[in-house]
Amino acid sequence: MQAALVEQRRAGIIHDQILLLEHPHVITVGGSSHEEHVLADETTRRRLGIQLVDTGRGGDVTYHGPGQLIGYPILDLKPNRRDTYRYLRDLEETLIKALREFDLEGRREDGLTGVWVGGQKIAAIGVRVSSRWITSHGFALNVATDLSYFDTIVPCGLHDREVTSISECLGRRVEVAEAIAPVLLAVGEVFDREIHVV
Amino acid sequence: MNGVTGVARIEVPMPQMGESIAEGTVSKWLKQLGDTVARDEPILEISTDKVDAEIPAPQGGTLVEIAVQEGETVEVGTIVAYIDTEGGPAVAPAPAEASSTEVEASTDATVVEAAPGAEAPESEAPAHPTPPATPGSADERLRTRSTPVVRRIAQEHGIDIGGVPGSGHAGRVTKQDILAFIERGPSVPARPTAAAPPAATASVGDFWSTFYGEVQHPEFPVREGDTVETMDKIRRLTAEHMVVAKRLAPHVHSFIEIDFSRIDMIRAANKVRWAEQGARVSYTAFVAWACSRLLRRYPQINGTVSGNNLIYRNNVNLGMAVDLDPGLIVPVIHDADHLGLVGIGKKIIDLAERARSRRLSPDEIQGGTFSITNPGVLGTLVGMPIIPKGTAAILGMGSIEKRAVVIEDESTGTDMIAIRKRSYFSLAYDHRLVDGADAARFLAQLKEMLEEFSEDA
Question: Model-level pTM?
Answer without folding.
Answer: 0.43
